[in-house]
Amino acid sequence: MAVAACSGGADSLALAGALAFEAPRAGRPAGGITIDHGLQDGSDKRAEAVVRTMVGLGLDPAGSIAVTVDGPGGPENAARDARYAALDGAAHRSGATAVLLGHTQDDQAETVLLGLARGSGARSLAGMPARFRRSNVLYLRPLLELDRATTRRACKAMGLDPWDDPHNIDSAYARVRVRHEALPALEKALGPGVAEALARTARMLRDDADALDEMAARAYSDLETSEDGYNAAVRLEGLEGLPRAVRTRVLRMAAVRAGSPPGTLAAVHIDAVDRLVTAWHGQRHVDLPGGLRAFRRSGKLLFGPV
């Protein structure tokens, strides 16, 4: 069974409608789920309305889950973490083989621009994958090739009335500023098709990043060693000669393996660790997120607690 994650907005509502239309024709069951983040007055009533719409479309089971948004990393990250945790649980309970997400080409373009503004590497600029797994749940984004205007037309054609989340016009959020200010400015300056071009760039960068990650994983497996009192260690011999794009990925893998949180482990940290390998002049250590340090000692690069 496939389950559509539906907020009631045009993108996810069009997705729910498409799933409800296609699943019976393929002889497959299909359900829907909406997440009540509790961030606005009346959000529970909104969730109930979305459930009624999904039931009306023929999605079964259809339900809502209320979550508490109080995690680290700001409200957007906290909401995303709570949402995915709820979707993971719902998929396991229902036995769903896949959860469908309504992200579009426009969402992908916004993600690429946000990554570019942060000075992120190829993996971040590669945007959102069309499919991924987490907590043993398969997630799919079947609308990544479609723009937002198409989903609105689809809703109109299906007689569906999408809900416009007030957060989507709140300029306090960086993504909203990109959507309503940055992308229109780029379209005005460069001509139409910027969002499509950014999404196309993301696809190409994802291919490159996947290949480099695979190379780095093999290199890490070859170079990984152990050292008492340290969470991770790699041999320096063979590390320095790797292409920088592969070497820095190996260093990131080692830091994450040692316990450094991936979400706060930034390029500046990895660059500093890389200097322990390629430009070592007696530096003692590099501090990393998660209360860790990287050391160079006895032919090894060591990652351990402060």
UniProtKB/TrEMBL annotation:
Compartments it resides in: Cytoplasm
GO cellular component, one term: cytoplasm
Alphabetical GO biological process terms: tRNA modification
This protein's UniProt keywords: ATP-binding, Cytoplasm, Ligase, Nucleotide-binding, tRNA processing
EC numbers: 6.3.4.19
Protein residues bound to ATP: 7-12
Signal peptide: none
tRNA(Ile)-lysidine synthase substrate-binding domain segment(s): 236-297
One Gene Ontology molecular-function label: ATP binding
Occurrences of domain tRNA(Ile)-lysidine/2-thiocytidine synthase N-terminal (ranges): 3-181
Main location: cytoplasm
Catalytic activity: cytidine(34) in tRNA(Ile2) + L-lysine + ATP = lysidine(34) in tRNA(Ile2) + AMP + diphosphate + H(+)
Segments traversing the membrane: none
Domain note: The N-terminal region contains the highly conserved SGGXDS motif, predicted to be a P-loop motif involved in ATP binding.
HAMAP family associated with the record: tRNA_Ile_lys_synt
Family note: Belongs to the tRNA(Ile)-lysidine synthase family.
Known role: Ligates lysine onto the cytidine present at position 34 of the AUA codon-specific tRNA(Ile) that contains the anticodon CAU, in an ATP-dependent manner. Cytidine is converted to lysidine, thus changing the amino acid specificity of the tRNA from methionine to isoleucine.
Official protein name in the record: tRNA(Ile)-lysidine synthase
Phylogenetic classification of the source organism: Bacteria, Bacillati, Actinomycetota, Actinomycetes, Streptosporangiales
